[in-house]
Amino acid sequence: MSENLGTFIKNVCHKYKKDKTRLMDIACEVQEQFGCVSGKAMDLIAGEISIHRVEVENLVSFYAFLSKEPKGKIVIRLCNDIIDELNGAEEVAKAFSEELGIKVGQTTADGKITLEYTPCIGMCDQAPAAMVNDVIVTNLNSDKARKIAHSIKKHGDPSKLSAPLGDGNNANELVLSMVNNNIRQKGEVIFARHEQGAGLTKALSLSPVEVIRDIKTARLRGRGGAGFPTGMKWEFARQATGTNRYVICNADEGEPGTFKDRVILTECPDLMFEGMTIAGYAIGSETGILYLRGEYAYLRAFLEKILSNRRKNGMLGKDVGGKKGFNFDIRIQMGAGAYICGEETALISSCEGLRGDPKTRPPFPAQKGYLASPTTVNNVETFCCVARILDKGAPWFTEIGSQGSPSTKLLSVSGDCKKPGVYEVPFGIKVSDLLKMVGAEDTAAVQVGGPSGQMIGPADFKRTICYDDLATGGSIMIFNSTRDVLRIASKFMEFFVEESCGYCTPCRTGNVLLKERLDRIIAGKGEPSDLDYLQELGESVKVSSRCGMGQTSPNPVLSTLKNFRGQYEKLTKRSKDGLMQSFDIKAAIADAEAIAGRPSEKFSLNS
Amino acid sequence: MDKPKVATTSLAGCFGCHMSILDIDDRILKLIELVDFDKSPVDDIKNFTGQCAIGIIEGGCCNEENVHVLQEFRKHCNILIACGDCATMGGIPAMRNNIPLKECIDEAYKNSPSVYNPKNITPNDKELPLLLNKVYPCQEVVKIDYFLPGCPPSADTIWQALVALLNNKPLDLPYKLIKYD
């Protein structure tokens, strides 16, 4: 085995030319082959690519899909985001657990199967869902879970689980997945019929500066949620000094409740790659990277095939599209289960073979990004818009949507509604109209933009989805009146606690404190003053965190405090004697009573 | 009119904060013109003699006795001040919070290299207060009105806090008094 390991690592490192910036890929391959990146493996990798072992360990310990301890040949990862939970993820977990004879977090005694939880895997419209290695299984219930557990115990082959196959390209021979696209509404921009390559051809007939001008005229803003003007970003990257420039496509959609990029990657990858190529031309780059979240590994072979077709057709490689001197190619970088890598500077760190730590700004990626070179990082949907703008022109693009937010937006709708799925709607759509469209009844709350966005109640349903009002990267979660909004907020805080990279104290510690205090209120032991505490602490975390995650992580608490204050007030009451209701002396001395073998002298009588 | 009363106590602390109270030096003469000390280690009064204006708490709660005393302070004091880092955050004693209680006790009485305990006895007299499962900062146990940071808070900080409270003025601590790095 160790000889195997040695040879394997030698070969893998050789494959990546002993390039330490490809450490992610090396570690992922070792993990896949041996079920872990053991201490021995770390030593070997470090030796092979001439870095310190601690650098390897640093990386391995960071990503959820990498582990130092051996995992089973098959790892079942149950999605436990709020939508899955409301759809019965707990019963599914119980069924898996019983059938496999292990608890969540454990590996079977024969070392074959590991069962664990994972945050949102981008399947909220077909929840509960799970990953069995790279294979996605959806619409689970306890019966299905038992069947799956039973069959992988028998044949050990996850790929046999994908039946029936999903719609569209999910049935492609390189995908073969049971995932469904659930495209409920096609708009004019992303899901409309279009001539392949028209945008790129048009772009190559213009100068790069003219391309950027068109994007600016179209007033295209980033579709990931932050809404930074794309044209401006490209201009910065073009004007920055550096020999190499990079185009990165952020396909790490980890915001719980978002899955629209998955549908683009499945149905219009060419449009996205075309947009990336246009970006390469515009900023003067030769290299593009598609950062694909580990959860979407099942799409990798399909996407690689698309890339190789594009190379064959002269749409990638040397003299792209016949344009002399424009060379551009794209590689896929796999992520390994880290929400924070959706943040662009963390994503760049990850591409460089490092922990997914955000970087300090300035310098911004447009000046010093990937490998300290000018880099533009854009969302999957943004690149699709780019290709369409070049094809149809900026005026066409700005005619759609609202004044401040031109064009359409893909929304990933999930939760309590009849038709969860992906909707391409014009910007400026009212929440109430959207709710009607998706068949949501008795709606009590809508989470716009995922946990990092905001939760709104019926009073805000007349507001519109656009950059100037309710901005969103696409996640729309709907909750009806039987749901407990504070428990949902707590669940979101649990997510942020788990996903914090740990660099900034306010985010690492503050989110834990926010969740503790929120849970205290939910348990009916809160004081009215706890609301001020939550508000103050939440604001502190927001202003004193370095990256976008910390700056938005208190939002579940802050937005429910604002929009659902009544729920908090109902649960809190002032203590009359100044003693904290949350302090439980009985529980606090239980351990000591057991150790001493006697009841407390002071507190056993007086209650 | 009677002078307002002040009570102080040291729970799971090192008495450093009380040392800092004494560090107000000759201002203590002014202080006793302003207030009477009630239950406090300063005058060794063991039990409250009546309602107090201000209670100053040093240290967090590591055992049931601490909880009892702190609850008594809450009952008998109009304003409670958590004085110093142990009272506000648990401080050094809270370093045990990540270690199970049994392990802590065994380390102290049995396993530590310097222990001489041939009969392998863990003290367990009824007079000994039971330890809590972890060390709690004061505000986890009772409502606290003011927090003075510092290890210990300087004499000037304590003095200014007391004077402001006794004169019913807003407490304004200059940055240099609460800056610790």
Write up what this structure looks like:
Chain A is of the alpha/beta class and 607 residues long. Chain A folds into six domains: 2-62; 74-161, 3-Layer(aba) Sandwich (Glutaredoxin), CATH 3.40.30.10; 185-399, NADH-ubiquinone oxidoreductase 51kDa subunit (Rossmann fold, 3-Layer(aba) Sandwich), CATH 3.40.50.11540; 408-483, Roll (Ubiquitin-like (UB roll)); 486-571, de novo design (two linked rop proteins); 582-607, no CATH class. Helix content of chain A is 43%, strand content 13%. Chain A is built from 24 helices and 16 strands. Chain A has helices at residues 2-15, 23-34, 39-49, 53-62, 82-86, 89-100, 142-155, 198-205, 208-217, 230-239, 260-267, 269-283, 300-312, 344-351, 380-392, 394-399, 431-438, 485-499, 505-522, 529-544, 548-552, 555-563, 565-571, 585-596; strands at residues 74-79, 113-118, 130-132, 135-137, 183-185, 246-251, 287-292, 329-334, 375-379, 408-415, 421-426, 429-430, 443-448, 454-456, 464-465, 475-480. In chain A, the strands form four sheets. Chain A has a six-stranded mixed β-sheet, with helices on one face. A four-stranded mixed β-sheet of chain A has the order 2-1-3-4, covered by helices on one side. In chain A, strands 8-7-6-9 form a four-stranded parallel β-sheet, with helices on both faces. In chain A, 52% of the residues are buried. Chain B has helices spanning 16-22, 27-34, 64-76, 85-89, 101-111, 155-166, and strands at 5-10, 36-37, 52-58, 61-63, 77-83, 131-136, 146-148. The mean pLDDT of chain B is 94. Chain B has one domain: NADH:ubiquinone oxidoreductase-like, 20kDa subunit (Rossmann fold, 3-Layer(aba) Sandwich), CATH 3.40.50.700. Chain B is of the alpha/beta class. Chain B is globular, with a radius of gyration of 18 Å. Classes of the chains: A alpha/beta (607), B alpha/beta (181). The A-B interface holds A 527, 529, 575, 577-580, 582-583, 585, 587-593, 595-598, 600-603 and B 63-65, 67-68, 71, 74-75, 80, 100-102, 105, 122, 124, 126, 129-134, 136, 139-143.
